[in-house]
């Protein structure tokens, strides 16, 4: 497998965590978003959407991190990222969707570039924009963690799940946009518990070959 990834990309980060949790290796193919390598024709031939990540498996290109992670779960069911019970699965998927559907997309690089170029947003304005949507999502995520008395450190249950796969990269993004994380103590606890696991450590942005 080849993983097209950028070290600081949250969606690449979530896929790296999922691969590590499943015990799967992939050759790292760096795509530098800073130099807009993703907008070049060679990468467009891999992913017409010109976004990372992409996972190439025996010549077949998989795109969209939610679809790739679901594919991994189906092809490599153990260890499971989703609980068995349908209600619990819906809960874990909802936690993941807070990040994947409602936080990350509005803070993506191309959105921020548009705000900079079309609306003259400076760094403070960009941080305020990202902080607004991260805070809205994290307030809800924290409330859902608080309402679950059966959690043991992680977002759900006693081990890492799909929810943690999504949450941890978004915490990294929040730090980058200088969001004060202290108001979400349960989210911080999840970060610490996951950060103790090798699968999460090896997936971290600064542990990647293209980190700089
Ligand atoms: N929904 C897609 C989003 C992928 C995505 O937006 N990737 C970002 C990096 S985190 C990217 O490539 N951005 C390039 C840009 O915005 O120019 C997924 O989950 O794979």
Report on this model:
The chain has a 4-stranded mixed sheet with strand order 2-1-3-4, with helices on one face. The protein starts with a strand and ends in a 9-residue tail after the last helix. The protein contains 9 helices and 4 strands, in the order βαβαββααααααα. With 212 residues, it is an alpha+beta fold. Bound molecules: glutathione. Glutathione binds at residues 9-11, 33, 38, 51-53, 64-66, 108-110.
Would you spell out the secondary-structure blueprint of this structure?
Elements (H helix, E strand, L loop, with lengths): L1 E4 L4 H12 L5 E4 L10 H4 L9 E4 L2 E4 L1 H11 L10 H18 L5 H11 L3 H24 L15 H15 L8 H11 L2 H6 L9
Parallel strand pairs: 1-2
Antiparallel strand pairs: 1-3, 3-4
Helix pairs in contact: 1-3, 1-7, 4-6, 4-7, 7-8
Oligomeric assembly? single chain
Helix content: 40-55%
Low-confidence spans: none
Give every kind of bound small molecule, once each: glutathione
What gross morphology would you assign?
globular
Strand order of the largest sheet: 2-1-3-4
Beta strand count: 4
What's the order of the H and E elements?
EHEHEEHHHHHHH
- Gyration radius, rounded: 17 Å
Sheet-strand content, in percent, reads 5-15%
Measured between the Cα atoms of the first and last residue, the distance is: 24 Å
Instruction: Give the integer mean of the pLDDT values.
Output: 98
Total count of helical runs of at least 4 residues = 9
Query: Helices and strands: which structural class?
Result: alpha+beta
For the sheet with most strands, the description reads: 4 strands, mixed
């Amino acid at each position: 497998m080849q993983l097209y990834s950028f070290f600081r990309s949250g969606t690449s980060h979530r896929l790296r965590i999922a691969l590590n949790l499943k015990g799967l290796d992939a050759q790292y193919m760096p795509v530098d978003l800073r130099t807009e390598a993703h907008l070049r024709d060679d990468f467009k031939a891999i992913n017409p959407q010109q976004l990372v990540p992409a996972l190439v498996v025996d010549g077949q290109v998989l795109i969209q991190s939610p679809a790739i992670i679901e594919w991994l779960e189906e092809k490599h069911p153990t260890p499971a990222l989703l609980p068995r019970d349908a209600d619990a699965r819906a809960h874990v998927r909802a936690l993941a969707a807070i990040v994947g559907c409602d936080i990350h997309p509005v803070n993506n690089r191309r959105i921020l570039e548009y705000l900079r170029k079309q609306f003259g947003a400076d760094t403070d304005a960009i941080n305020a924009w990202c902080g607004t949507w991260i805070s809205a999502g994290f307030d809800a995520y924290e409330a859902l963690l608080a309402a679950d008395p059966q959690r043991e450190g992680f977002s759900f249950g006693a081990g890492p799940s799909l929810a943690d796969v999504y949450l941890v990269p978004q915490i990294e993004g929040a730090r980058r946009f200088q969001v004060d994380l202290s108001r979400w103590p349960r989210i911080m606890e999840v970060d610490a518990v996951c950060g103790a696991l090798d699968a999460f450590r090896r997936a971290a942005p600064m542990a990647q070959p293209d980190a700089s």
